[in-house]
Amino acid sequence: MNHQVGRRLRVAIAGFKLESVTFLPNLTTLTDFQAAECSGATLIDGHRGANTPVGGFIAVCEREGVEMVPIVYTEVGAAGPASDEAFDHYLGRFLAGLKDVDVDGVLLDLHGAMTTPTRMDAEADIFAAVRRQVGAQTRIMAALDYHANLDESTLLKADAVFGYHFSPHIDQAETGARAAECMVRTLRGEIDPVWAIVKPGLMVPSIFSATSLEPLAGLVQDSIRRARDCASYLDVSVFAGFSYADVPSCGFSVLAVTDGDRELARETATELSETIRASRAAFSHTELLHGIPDGIAEAVRIAEHNDRPVVLLEHADRMGDSTYLLREVVARQLGRTAVPFLWDPQAASIAAAAGVGAQVRLSVGGHSSERAGGAVTIEGKVVFAGPKSYHVTGPYYTGRLANLGNTVVIDAGFLVLSITSRQFVAVDEDCFTQFGMRASDFDFIVLRSKTHFRAAYESLAAAIVIIDTPDWGPADLTTLNYVHVARDRTYPFSDAA
Ligand SMILES: [Zn+2]
């Protein structure tokens, strides 16, 4: 701080995001993060106008005449824990970027559910290290994912944090803007943020974290309404947590930020947390779940009376390569079926080498863990092969660069399968339109997203049939072997208050 009078406000921007599935056997490596890295001017140009928190930081800073100091940004979606090497590397980059720059504030884009083999709360360590670097006077604020696992200790060194309101995360840029606006108002001396966080002791599987489902829909609206109707500054975030990270802070939390009013922050977070706690049983929607045979039968029944495709949702997949539904599709040949963005670099490379027009026989998918369903053999014609990247056009992550790596599309008649070398979850119609197809070309579409696909497919699809396969993201959390979760005070493991 201590900037000269008259100089423009200056804010550093950095991001490092991963949703750690601690049950997965493989780590997310430095190489994985480096493939998605941007820094300097590229960071700003790559996110300007995008539905990302950094996109929101940029919009507010440019509107308010705040000078931005871009440091580094990288992100992998949901995957195994970050390697300690990757963590040390990016935290080191943050600290090096903040060294010797005279900034008034630091805006961070973090997930909130990152772990490493030696850290169960990686974000707490990031906040603490950044605080040590910039000192007590510089403001540190962050945008966090709605699926962040938080408690007070995570956020001790942050001035304020802001979570997405919705899942699908259609409001990422808006969340970044909430953080940046709070930062600018704070630096101008208009407000002095304080926060409170309260945990209701509840975990939900990601499939039931969609904010279109009750009671979440009403709770989220309530949190937004409270902030909007408050006479003084108030921002409220409801975090659903990420249940596939076995950490002590796993599960819901409610966080309120106010202008110096600790009482209001505490009261707001407590009231919402108590409502969540009281509704705990209603978060589970087992009536929406199907097993494999009855789910497929249901989808076939719906398809008979509809022109639009039926989504078969393999929601328990965590790495993009589960094959439970692909195996059924190949065995039963239900109708024209699309399986977009199966992650299998080796199969993609074999088919790409055969080239467009070649007839190939491939063993695909099911390799990421023993729960991924095992490889399935398919035969078909290669109709696309090569490196593929594009800017997302769908409502989730609009404008963001999607880099699929070496990609192939195989047409087997009853089945059109796209295979990517980099993990990328199909959530919108880009998985078809980028290859000259439409969702409406198909009777059935196999997707793996938990909630984000709803932003596009609730209107594209005749129905969404959720099929609970035995992978690492099951709807029944009690089937997972949690060691660090506080089971004795967390629903559904315990009903004790
Ligand atoms: Zn999320």
Protein model, in words:
The protein has helices at 30-34, 40-47, 53-64, 84-98, 122-134, 152-155, 172-187, 216-229, 262-278, 292-304, 324-332, 345-354, 430-433, 454-460, and strands at residues 10-20, 38-39, 67-79, 105-110, 139-144, 160-163, 193-198, 234-239, 253-259, 289-290, 310-313, 337-343, 359-364, 376-391, 401-411, 415-420, 444-447, 463-467. It is an alpha/beta fold and 497 residues long. It has two domains: 10-283, 3-Layer(aba) Sandwich (Rossmann fold); 292-467, no CATH class. It starts with 9 loop residues before the first strand and ends in a 30-residue tail after the last strand. The model has no long low-confidence stretch (mean pLDDT 95). The structure holds zinc ion (ZN). Zinc ion binds at residues 145-147, 169.
Topology of helices and strands:
Elements: E1 10-20, H1 30-34, E2 38-39, H2 40-47, H3 53-64, E3 67-79, H4 84-98, E4 105-110, H5 122-134, E5 139-144, H6 152-155, E6 160-163, H7 172-187, E7 193-198, H8 216-229, E8 234-239, E9 253-259, H9 262-278, E10 289-290, H10 292-304, E11 310-313, H11 324-332, E12 337-343, H12 345-354, E13 359-364, E14 376-391, E15 401-411, E16 415-420, H13 430-433, E17 444-447, H14 454-460, E18 463-467
Parallel strand pairs: 1-3, 1-4, 4-5, 5-6, 10-18, 11-17, 11-18, 12-16, 12-17
Antiparallel strand pairs: 2-3, 7-9, 8-9, 13-14, 14-15, 15-16
The chain binds zinc ion (ZN).
Zinc ion (ZN) binds at residues 145-147, 169.
What name does the CATH topology of the largest domain carry?
Rossmann fold
Number of separate structural domains: 2
Return the CATH architecture of the largest domain. Answer: 3-Layer(aba) Sandwich
CATH class of the largest domain: Alpha Beta
Q: Which structural category fits the helices and strands? A: alpha/beta
Q: Count of DSSP helices?
A: 14
Indicate the mean pLDDT: 95
**Helix content range of the residues, please?**
25-40%
CATH superfamily (homologous) name of the largest domain: Response regulator
Give me the side-by-side strand order of the main sheet: 10-18-11-17-12-16-15-14-13
Describe the biggest sheet?
9 strands, mixed
Bound molecules: zinc ion
How far apart are the termini? 44 Å
Shape: globular
Low-confidence stretches: none
Q: Which band does the percent of strand residues land in?
A: 15-25%
- Strand runs, count: 18
Instruction: Please give the radius of gyration in angstroms.
Output: 23 Å
